[in-house]
Description:
CATH architecture: Sandwich
CATH superfamily: Jelly Rolls
Number of domains: 1
Order of helices and strands: HEEEEEEEEE
Shape: globular
Number of strands: 9
Amino acid sequence: MDNERAETNEGRDWENIEFNVASAATEITIHTGSGTSTATTKYLGKTAMATGFVLRTDKALEVLQIHTTVFKNPISVSTDGMSVSKHLRDFNTMVLRTTLDNTNIKLLVT
Length: 110
């Protein structure tokens, strides 16, 4: 049982991204696959779908969508961040919306 956590993380395709969003109320779509990133579309270059994530930000933001689920009431994320590693289906898309200008975002996906 001591190695249970290590065994479940073994072989995961970890990837991270850091970026700044200049304007408030900007929607950013993040894809786990490959592509050419723009100001509002980011690609992680993962070879598989994501199974969890850690989201850190220096200003509050909202999670609008994870995979095909669009939230009726967006999830507010404070500067404390958000981490999800259980009870989440595999996903390949996440949509965020900034609430303030000049927001720095760090995202790690597994």
